[in-house]
Amino acid sequence: MSDAARTLPHRPEIHRETEQAKTFGVVEKPLSAWERVYNLGFVRKLALLAVLALAWELYARSIDNSLIFPTFSATARALYEGFVEGGLLLRAWTSIRVLLMGYAAGLALAAVLTVLAITTRVGTDLLETLTAMFNPLPAIALLPLALIWFGLGEASLIFVLIHSVLWAVALNTHSGFMSVSMTLRMVGRNYGLTGLRYVAGILIPAAFPSILTGLKIGWAFAWRTLIAAELVFGVSSGSGGLGWFIYENKNLLEIQNVFAGLFTVILIGLLVENVIFRTVEIRTIRKWGMQH
Amino acid sequence: MNDVTLGAPLLDVSGVTLQYKTREHLITATYRVDFKVYPSDRFILLGPSGCGKSTLLKAVGGYLQPVEGEIRLKGSPIGRPGPDRMMVFQEFDQLLPWKTVLENVMFPLVASGKLHGAAARDKAMHYIDKVNLTKFADSFPHMLSGGMKQRVAIARGMAMEPDILLMDEPFAALDALTRRKMQDELLQLWDETRFTVLFVTHSIPEAITIGNRILLLSPHPGQVKAEINSLARGDTDPVRAKELEDRINAMLFSDRIEQEEAAHE
Question: Does residue A96 lie within any of the structural domains?
Fold first, then answer.
């Protein structure tokens, strides 16, 4: 024993009775109504939106030039009229229909590429090379080529949409598959799962957080690409989409309609993000404790 | 029980040499290991880290092929992983996070085509009940403590009623108190169902508590040092346990002492 240890003083032992919980005030108490309302994400976001709308209104009124910057109220009115009589809904649907077709085709191709990539080494190399080449290439840059190959119309739009969806989704899905833990892989093989049953039963749900991120990014890319493409080559069969609506109204100097068109694009984006993707998230990765 | 002649072994590991590659090296994990596991054995693979005991278990699981020797289960060689050898891993993330406790236990039953629908559910509930998790059948794994997750993994393994249950240090990541409790529970389950288990551990007291037969392995690469009998089930005499522990200690670490003596001379 060292000298220091030998010189430690002797201390008496301490024993205590613990007190009953009721003797010391709060153990658990409900939060106040205000705290609970403030804890709701959508309430906070709505309040933020209201402040932004107010700032917009005030600024637009101070400029007082509806050709450059129409007020929030004028835009809201244009939006309302567009929905009720101007066929804005129809335009939006035209865009969304093309978008969904391109998105679905992109996802299917991404699925094929990633399944190839996890089953064979050549597939991995192929996916990595293709993604490195094409992911940085803006979809719009392919539009002139698409017009030559597929002509003026939906086929060209779908082509550029596939390009914008495919790489983001494939990249995220693949990196999700790669990061599935060794233990889960071994568990899956222990059950005797092989091939597509193994992919569907173990890899896809285990990699779902990354896959969902890929789907979201893909959706946003597709939406941007579509509106931009419609602005460039507009209409094929008399009923253009939202991009064409914006372009048309710019030419007519109906700036509040331009704003209403942009607003619709934003609204659809918000709706998809906050309703569709959010619901999927709550029902899957949040419920499973993969995201907090 | 020793008077009864042993039948054919359930698991026969003969002359197994295992190698695996890291980025830079080819490593021999075990060298010509032999042992036989009989039905209802609680067979322990015991040794210090680096003795290849987990690698050996993975080979029995079918994740790795021996470069020399053979592993036979009920007479036929092991080719690939399969539900006749259910694994219980050390890691808490071995449960599928997207399935509830009940679904986790049911999944291998259904996936392997062993049982379907209500039959699978009943079987799963039976074993969930055995590990005292009935109240948590509809919980997701992330809501459970580490010990509870391991109990689910054990229930999942047992529900399949495999030929042999393979356990890779399943209690190593638990705190000491939970660990003691889980060891007792496992033994109680064994009393009820007499399953065969191959159990890997580096803890000598755990080996003595759980096993009836203990294989001692030396490190780098793993070679069989001894295969000894543990205390009989129900024998809780601390003196005999201590004696056995000292004996195992002496066997496992005799090399090291000899080496140290050689260094001193």
Answer: yes
pLDDT category at B20 given cuts 50, 70, 90 is: confident
Residues A38 and A176 in one domain: no
Whether B126 is in a domain gets the answer yes
Residue A185: closest C-alpha in chain B = B94
Q: Classify burial at A229, counting beta carbons within 10 Å of its beta carbon; exposed 0-12, middle 13-18, buried 19 or more.
A: buried
Q: What is the pTM of this model?
A: 0.81
Mean pLDDT of B81-107: 93
Instruction: Give me the pLDDT at residue B2, please.
Output: 47
Q: Name the pLDDT band for B1 (thresholds 50, 70, 90).
A: very low
The structural domain count of chain B equals 2
- Chain B residues touching residue A282 (CB < 8 angstroms): none
DSSP A67-94: TT---HHHHHHHHHHHHHTS-HHHHHHH
CA-based torsion, A101, A105, A110, A115: positive or negative? positive
ipTM score here?
A: 0.87
Chain B residues within an 8 Å CB radius of A186 = 61, 63, 81, 87, 89
Q: What pLDDT is attached to residue A82?
A: 86
A91 and A215 assigned to the same domain: yes
CB-based contact A104:A165 (threshold 8 Å): no
Residue A244 pLDDT grade (very low, low, confident, very high; cuts 50, 70, 90): confident
Q: Which residues contact B138 (CB under 8 A, 6 or more apart)?
A: B100, B101, B102
The mean per-residue pLDDT over the stretch B239-248 comes to 86
Element holding B131 (H helix, E strand): none
Q: How far apart are CA B246 and CA A280, in angstroms?
A: 58
Chain B residues whose beta carbon lies within 8 Å of the beta carbon of residue A288: 97-98, 140, 142
Residue B183 lies in a domain: no
Provide the residue range defining the domain that includes B56.
1-85+164-173+195-265
**Residue A53, domain extent:** 30-64
